[in-house]
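pls read this protein:
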Amino acid sequence: MKNPKQFSFQDFSRQLSAKAFSIKKLVADDDLNEDIHRAYLFLQGKALDSLLESLTQELKEIVEPQLLKTTDWTTSRLFPFISSLVFEITFTTIYGKLLAGNRKELISELRDDFLKFDDTFPYLVSDIPIQLLRHVKSMQEKLIRCLTSEKLDQMHGCSEVVQERKEILEKHYGREDLEIGAHHLGFLWASMANTIPAMFWAVYYLLRHPEAVEALRDEIDSFVQSTGQKKGPGLSIHFTREQLDSLVCLGNLFLSAMKRRR
């Protein structure tokens, strides 16, 4: 508290961005930094409510066919299953749907590259030059090229926060500048790095503790009854952000999972 210059998170985050995502301009450009931080207003209030609605819709479209309408079941390890679901739902909610090509195949490839990149993150933020880290630089560049302005223009239904960030970055860079993709990679990593392991530990805990599942079911049944909704087939429950925040058992489950994220 007494040494804000020595312990400035802003300075730390700029250095981390340069090492992990190859974002160089933030280190010396205060105007860019301020503009980008203003975009985070789109993660609050009504914009956040809209984002939650989009996420709920994506959850229904992606999860329902896999869990509730599947007849030809296959098996998978828990972490790959969770990471696959969370990545697709989060990516589509934030960046929108791919308009061209095999969407599932492209999302799977992007997810696999992202998870490999995330595994190398502790090395990237150390003082090891990226050139000495085998395959990491090429993997980072591949992800950055997937998130350029040109690639994002091929998406449909991107979130307000991404639209705002895209406009800000194109104002500070040339539209073809690859560092725009580096910014989007940093944002994507921030949205996934905690979410995937937190969801994994939450599901893992529920699988091992039937009493926790019962407590959640009771809480959700009470919520459904109090809001005048009826249980039916599929993911038919609707809730606002305030209602979601009021679910105590669910909230405590994810708080515990966050503590175990790594």
User: Anything to note?
Assistant: Residues 196-259 form one domain.
